[in-house]
Amino acid sequence: MKRYLLKRLGQALLAVLGAATIVFFIIRLSGDPARLMLPPEASEEQVSALRESLGFNQPLWMQYLDYLRNLLTGDLGHSLYYKESALKLVLERMPATIDLAVFAILIAVTFGLLAGILSAYKKNSWIDYIVNAWIFLTQSLPVFWIGIVLIMVFAVRLHLLPTSGNRGLESIVLPAVTLAAYPIAPIARTMRASLLEVMDKGYMVTSRAQGFSKRRRVFKRGLKNAFLPVITVISLEFGVMIAGAVVTETIFSWPGVGQLIIQGVGNRDFPLVQASILVVSTIYIAITLITDLIYHRLDPRIKLQ
User: Fold this and answer.
1) Is residue 205 assigned to a domain?
2) pTM above 0.70, yes or no
3) Distance between CA 93 and CA 220 in Å, rounded?
4) pLDDT digit string, tens, across residues 118-135
5) Nearest 5°: CA angle at 162, between 141 and 171?
6) Residue 157's domain is classified under what CATH number?
7) How many C-beta atoms lie closer than 10 Å to residue 293's C-beta?
8) How far does CA 293 lie from the centroid of its chain?
């Protein structure tokens, strides 16, 4: 186990390095960062002065080495707009994004598991068809459309929930439901497919021959074994929620990292955007590592090689 953990930690560090490298080169190869950060009417003298002050006049390989050296010390640069450490700004906004993602994944897991179990339990019935149609619908609708509809119904017409900001539990309901709408489908599909596969196993067929009821076979023996593949889907969807909350946070003015990225792009704040993407990528990689360890813990039969 220790050997496997060290190996996975090494792979995670390499993945973080790869993410940092991709962010570094994509931002710089998309154009002159100094010119991108200044308004279009900026003079050549202003562009040259900013390029020199940020070290963009050096060769690309020297910029990359300086970038890696700063990463080791936790220096991700300073925000050009806020005049503060970019990493500090990202870490201050991260709790709001994590709160939103946790609330949303709880909603997605609850409804996704219930829908998947019900669909498998009532296979080929009208309930199964309705659940599958609902799953298809939730994956077809754009996130921003769902968010706007929820605002119009529950905030504008019914006046039940606020439309924006983070002012307590009521404020998180609409953005969390919006963010959870899409992940419900893959969780439900995986739960249904995994449970149906388990129900066809030899030991389940034997328990049916022994006279055990369908409910007992499903809930006493089937769910435990069927739940393992769902863990991977849930963890990946949770990582996607943290990384992809940009649209939801923008619609509801949720003060998280997603909104910070949009503000950074609008303000041409290149260091802030770079730091935000790197931190989110690191969290996603960490979630993947934790998932592997949990998966092994739940199923010791898995060989860690």
Assistant:
1) yes
2) yes
3) 42
4) 888 888 788 888 888 888
5) 85
6) 1.10.3720.10
7) 14
8) 19
